[in-house]
Amino acid sequence: MSRPAKADTKCARLRAFMADGAWYAAAQLAEVGGSRFPARLHEIRRGADGDRPIDYECRSVGGSDTAFEYRLLPHAPEPEKRTERRRQSAAELIRHQAEEIARLTAELAKLRTERRAGQAELFGGGR
User: In angstroms, rounded to a whole number, what is the distance separating the alpha carbons of residues 77 and 8?
Assistant: First the structure.
């Protein structure tokens, strides 16, 4: 049996339905994307459906723990790009911390040298 064309998949239908960026109730999304629509949203987020990755938001509505609305964020940066920016920020932080450690290590070495010199003077000129 051949795989359905991309436009015929529930994931593609869900992506097309939510493309306007509006909020949709879970029941609406279940009609379009099936009962596994949350898993399909994750596929859309990762680009696992064969299209470009698009992030989404989820919010609780009403007082119920089970009432949620979802929307795609078509103009947000792709999730991979955000991840890359996080990696770059982490690399910059690590580089800064390494520089700070090197500075503190040098300062500590200087203080130890000064302390040794002071002890040598105190205890008889460096025996």
Answer: 26
Domain assignment of residue 84, given as a range: 79-127
Number of structural domains, the chain?
2
For the segment 10-58, what is each residue's pLDDT rounded down to a tens digit?
Answer: 999 999 999 998 999 999 999 999 999 999 999 998 888 888 888 899 9
Q: What DSSP character marks residue 103?
A: H
| Residues 6 or more apart in contact with residue 98 via CB below 8 angstroms | none
DSSP string, 24-87: EEHHHHHHHH-TTHHHHHHHHHHTTTSS---EEEEEE-TT-SS-EEEEEETTSPPHHHHHHHHH
Give the tens place of pLDDT for each residue, 21-33: 899 999 999 999 9
pTM to 2 decimal places: 0.53
Q: Are residue 96 and residue 112 in the same domain, yes or no?
A: yes
59 contacts 108 by C-beta, under 8 angstroms: no
- Cα–Cα distance, 80 to 125 (Å, whole number): 64
- For residue 65, being part of any structural domain is answered with yes
